[in-house]
Write a structure and sequence with these properties.
Elements: E1 13-15, H1 17-25, E2 29-32, H2 36-41, E3 48-49, E4 53-56, E5 59-62, H3 66-71, E6 79-83, H4 88-99, E7 104-108, H5 111-117, H6 126-129
Parallel strand pairs: 1-7, 2-3, 2-6, 6-7
Antiparallel strand pairs: 4-5
């Protein structure tokens, strides 16, 4: 029997926000892997929020319950769009989901920031909807 190679970031399908929006209109689920605080500020309608990482005093850590929490609300054969703030956490979450046996996951390139930039988040000013990524150093 042939051994299955673990999936990597290179194996993750990435779709742009326009494709993601189209998929959502056909029944895909939107899994928002940002922190609860990021999600509370603004999010895609009907999104599920299961944080992939938490910010702690020691730095960022992966949510140890991420996969069980996803399994409690999503089936492995469901079609899912996974997104974070800018795309990094989303792609890493997709790797974990693929390795756990989820068959149809795609990372939304650019994350929720790209969704806002595309004008899909409503009428509020973009600055009110977007937040600086907590997991990257700030540029000067």
């Amino acid at each position: 029997m042939e051994e299955t190679k673990p999936k990597t970031v290179e194996d993750v399908e990435t779709v742009d926000v326009y494709t993601a929006k189209g998929f959502l209109s056909t029944g895909h689920r939107y899994l928002d892997v940002r922190t609860n605080e990021e999600f509370a500020k603004s999010h895609v309608e009907d999104a599920l929020n299961i944080p992939y990482m938490f910010q702690t005093d020691e730095g960022r850590v992966i949510n140890p319950d991420f996969l069980p929490q996803v399994a409690s609300v999503c089936k492995k054969d469901e079609h899912m769009i996974v997104a974070c703030n800018a795309g990094g956490r989303g792609s890493r979450a997709c790797v974990d989901l693929l390795n756990a046996g989820y068959e149809h996951v795609a990372n939304m390139g650019g994350g929720y920031s790209a969704w806002v930039d595309a004008g899909f988040a409503g009428d509020k000013p973009r600055e009110e909807l977007k937040i600086a990524c907590q997991f990257r150093p700030k540029e000067n």
